[in-house]
Amino acid sequence: MSDHILVEQDGPIATVIINRPRVRNAIGLAMWTEIAEVTERLAKDDTVRALVFRGAGTDAFASGADISEFEENRKDLASATHYNQQTAAAYRTVRECPKPTVAMIYGYCMGGAVALALACDLRFAAEGSRYGIPAARLSIIYPFDSVKQLVDLVGPATTKDILFSARTLDAAEALRVGFIQQLLPPADLERYTYEYLKKVADNAPLSIQGTKAQVHAMFAGLDEAHRQELARLGLLTFESHDFREGTRAFMEKRAARFLGR
After folding, report:
1. Tens digit of pLDDT for each residue in 119-148?
2. Which residues, 6+ apart, have CB-to-CB distance to 158 below 8 Å?
3. What residues does 184 pair with on adjacent strands?
4. Which residues are 168's β-sheet partners?
5. Between β-strands 182-184 and 122-126, what pairing exists: parallel, antiparallel or unpaired?
């Protein structure tokens, strides 16, 4: 792992840090690959129950993809195809992570960083943060899956507005249109995010995973086979250790100790 992508773990919560504060945490090609690898590893780590994605410092979540690399890494069809595959893998790995994910956003969140934040389950932000997708100023078509996620959050008309105009949204508008779920004073954001995820981490992992699978299925297109598989997963929880522990704890009026199995 490079110095540009860091991982810190505090109990059941892991934090993935985009660490290039001198350039507002601009994300280079190798970093996109690393984000996918790190997220996949954390998804398989039984000691981790939730993930936070953030930028180093408080000036930026990330200013987006490192455009200074484009002359080399997007110079022709072959290089652009490879670049897009790496970024798509990063977004997909975060999106498909079975554990709860939160983008904790200070400052600027632009371009590809918006797609990374969209891939997370929730976006908690500091007052003064700013958002934009300047694809139309670079003659780039934003990735389909990210556009679909943006439509799911803010609706088709607002998505078109954001992408057509390439304008910057302030934090208040981002909250109003539904892009972010919580907006807090900068001094409170970190505390709130980790306190929230500690509560989530105390809940049953199988229930969290099942909820994520259901919500994703609704937007991916739910056929009958998929519906039956989700129902099967729901029934299997009744044979789990955590179901027995949860019901016993409820009856005994104590906190449950879930193991994720």
Report:
1. 999 999 999 999 999 999 988 889 999 999
2. 177
3. 126
4. 132
5. parallel
